Amino acid sequence: YLLDTFSGLMYNIFINYFVDISDMKLTTKGKFAVTALLDIAIYSEDNKKPITLYNISERQNISLSYLEQLFVRLRKNQVVKSYKGPGGGYVLMRDLDQIPISEIIKAVDEDMDARTCRGKGNCKDNTKCLTHDLWAGLTNEMYGYLDKITLKDLLSKAETKEPSKIMFCRS
Description:
mainly alpha, two-stranded antiparallel sheet, elongated
């Protein structure tokens, strides 16, 4: 029961809210990267048709320049592949069930570490603080949770298969 409650809590934090515990933040970088990759998954016709950032920008109301910054990181981390020229754009590098959400978050340099010391154990006066293990556990649980969820898992929750009617979170 406790694990289900925790999982539900983590899902709500991830999908609906910005998180700010100490220095831990889940910002628009992570949310928009996940949204953009879901857009590619939906519109790329089984990953055969490259999708332009312009099209993602228009459909998802995300700044084109912001998407460009995110996709530099996603390409560098081998989450997406780019094609240049007419008919160019982006496709996913792997099947949907092989891309965990945690990888997307890490690729765009999101930092979800709840520890102020970032794991170095120098929390205060160069020593480990009393709550270090608490925040380390939270960090591990968050990444563990996001490791288990793939783009395919998220798409399977769509209430329709018609691309234009799939709802995206805009909070």
